[in-house]
Fold this protein.
Amino acid sequence: MKIAFAASEVVPFAKTGGLADVSGALPVELEKLGHDVKVFMPKYYSVDEHKFNLEYQSWASPMPIRVADNVFDVHLHKGYLPNSKVEIYFIDCPYFFHRHNLYTDEKDEDQRFICFSKGVIEAIQRLHWSPDILHCNDWQTGLIPLYIKDNYNWDKLFDHTATVFTVHNIGYQGKFSTQTLYNAEISEDLFYHGGRIEQDGLVNFLKTGLSFADVINTVSETYAKELMTPEYSAGMHHLLRYREKDFYGIINGVDYDVWNPETDKLIPYNYSKADFSGKEKNKEELLKKFNMPYQKEIPLIGIVSRLAIQKGFDLVQAALGELMQLNAQWIVLGSGEQKYENMFQALHEQIPRNIGVYIGYNNDLAHLIEAGADIFLMPSYYEPCGLNQIYSLKYGTVPVVRKTGGLADTVQDWNEYNTYGMDIGNGFSFVDYKPQALVNAVQRAIGDYHNKPVWRKIQLNGMNKDYSWKHSASQYEELYKKAKLKQ
Ligand code: ADP
Ligand code: GLC
């Protein structure tokens, strides 16, 4: 199949979260299955064209693209996803994409991703390449399925193109005033009739993707079920129930070329199931970095996260007093909402020997925390898939999670499953979104940390799990076939 894959972030070019990891890995896996895959992303200011040897596509540039009242000269550059032949095309419009952050809350955020969405389609046209599948991801690409079915349906190139839309996070929908209809050249009829674009009087990019794509999915089975309830759907449950037959859950894979303690180049000591000694040395190294004392018998709890309410930090805040009483050390890496950044900073100033804090984004440190921590905490309120707990499993870093979304699908509580005589417990989880439930789960983990044979078993159960993209990529293959039938 010919597969076009559009996303607003792709590892290693630009990343704010798990979407980039997925977009950097899934296309490569699909190529291994024999497909012809091309990826499309915006050329942000931070994309380093020299480091990645990007080639300017003069033959296709400039592409005049109308957004709101202006026509922009959009340029095209080409690179490759690492260790593959997968081409990645960068949609280059400095006016929109040369900003300090990938995403902004500026007034023209709609225009930025209108430009990107049209840019993807126009680039495909210039490549004279007729994709079987156009796979769109999250709200930034939500208009593409509509454009293919409406604005660009005059072009025979897309006669056999089915569209797929993947929700990585329902919390971000791209909601704009009706001025956006004009900016994006969306027909008012479509907006005012049928409720496929409009939500609460606003133009909703995510809803548009969910309405117009031939098939839709999200990134775990449990999250797919949760999204059909008012509690988790952020207003989309009616639509998702309506489209239930076309809506699937596929768990993300992870890239074990990048996240594997045996080969990870970003950690000082590699280790494996057969020999854990490197893990202990990484712990020492990690604590040293934060000027914290190394105490072999005290578990080190790691957090690597966007500091957003989705991730359960209000719960951590409510439980902070009790959590800090536990006999454990903590290292937190994250950035996001100011109040959580301040909360962790203040805690570090109070008890620097117990908690190390790094506010910001640091990929090397993320790897070292996965390798050096004993326990990994992810108490998310909701979690579409979550990648860090899957990395943790591979690194023998026992996850403590709230049983929701992808966390529920990947972490099996040791006590629960052991009780049933099933030898698969690989972490600890709690259900109620209550401070006490969180504290209890962390306490259970700390308790078992001191029981060495039990702990090693939990670690091994996690390390033996295989979440490589192989499995999930073949599920996407099936999804694409369904999309073709629907189209
Ligand atoms: P989300 O996409 O919701 O943020 P995921 O668990 O799917 O959650 O993916 C998060 C990704 O971002 C992981 O690869 C994680 O290592 C990385 N990450 C998150 N915060 C940071 C940070 N402060 N520094 C480095 N990497 C981070
Ligand atoms: C989102 C979700 C996260 C998921 C990632 C990749 O950012 O919050 O749970 O793993 O996308 O699909």
About this structure: Residues 284 and 439 are 26 Å apart (CA to CA). The chain is about 40% helix and 20% strand. The pocket of alpha-D-glucopyranose (ligand 2) is lined by residues 17-19, 22, 168-169, 219, 252, 383-387, 406 (CB under 6 Å). The chain has two domains: 2-253+470-486, 277-466.
